[in-house]
């Protein structure tokens, strides 16, 4: 006698919480490099997973607060994808702030410098150079957040490993002077 039963799986989904963060670079630099150095050096996937989930929850909350977009459904079981999305928008905010300081203009931002090269190198090591450039170009050209979210959610599921993403955050933070 055979029996078919459908099992109900628990899927991870980001939690939206109150957000007191003013920018994504600030969000990434809060914990600092010490914790990430420990995670990267230990190669402990449980520590990396815990870090990734914590950051993914913070990024999801930030997106909900700032952009009024709930990204949770696009990234079920994919906290690493949320982090990759957060990295791109952190770089966008960083570039915009940097350019605004230089020009005192609110309407445009610089798209290429040493920090951008460093960012693209680190991110493209995880998701591939063509995908990284395509996503960045979409952001720069004014693609909607929904379009970028859809692209990153697909890429994040395919290529992002738990430890790889933690290492990417650490390398990007070092490169951009977040710590």
Beta-strand content estimate:
under 5%
Terminal residue distance: 62 Å
Rough outline: globular
Q: Please compute the radius of gyration using only Cα atoms.
A: 17 Å
Residue runs with pLDDT of under 50 for 5 or more positions: 105-112
- The counted number of beta strands is 0
Number of helices: 8
Average of the residue pLDDT scores: 83
Query: Helix and strand string, N-terminal first?
Result: HHHHHHHH
Judged by helices, strands and strand pairing, the structural class is mainly alpha
The proportion of residues forming helix, as a percent range, comes to 55-70%
Q: What does the main sheet amount to?
A: none
Descriptive notes:
By secondary structure, the chain is mainly α. The chain has helices spanning 24-29, 33-42, 45-67, 79-103, 114-127, 129-140, 145-159, 162-176. α3 (45-67) crosses α8, α5 packs antiparallel against α8 (162-176) and α6 runs antiparallel to α7. It is globular, with a radius of gyration of 17 Å.
Any descriptors?
179 residues, 8 helices
Offer a quick outline of the entry.
The protein has about 180 residues and is an all-alpha fold. It contains eight helices and no strands. The longest helix is centred in the middle third of the chain and has 25 residues, at about 80-105.
Describe how the helices and strands are arranged.
Layout: H1 24-29, H2 33-42, H3 45-67, H4 79-103, H5 114-127, H6 129-140, H7 145-159, H8 162-176
């Amino acid at each position: 006698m055979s029996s078919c039963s459908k099992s109900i799986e628990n899927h991870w989904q980001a939690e939206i919480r109150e957000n007191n963060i003013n920018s994504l670079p600030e969000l990434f630099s809060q914990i600092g490099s010490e914790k990430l150095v420990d995670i990267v050096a230990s190669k402990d996937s449980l520590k990396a997973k815990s870090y990734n989930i914590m950051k993914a929850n913070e990024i999801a909350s930030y997106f909900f607060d700032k952009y009024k977009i709930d990204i949770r459904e696009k990234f079920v079981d994919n906290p690493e994808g949320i982090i990759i999305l957060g990295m791109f928008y952190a770089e966008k905010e960083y570039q915009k702030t940097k350019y605004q300081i230089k020009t005192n203009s609110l309407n445009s931002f610089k798209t290429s410098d040493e920090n951008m090269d460093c960012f693209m190198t680190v991110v493209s090591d995880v998701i591939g150079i063509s995908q990284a450039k395509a996503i960045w170009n979409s952001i720069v050209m004014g693609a909607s957040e929904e379009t970028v979210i859809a692209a990153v959610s697909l890429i994040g599921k395919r290529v992002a490993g738990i430890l790889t993403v933690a290492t990417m955050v650490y390398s990007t933070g070092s490169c951009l002077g977040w710590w």
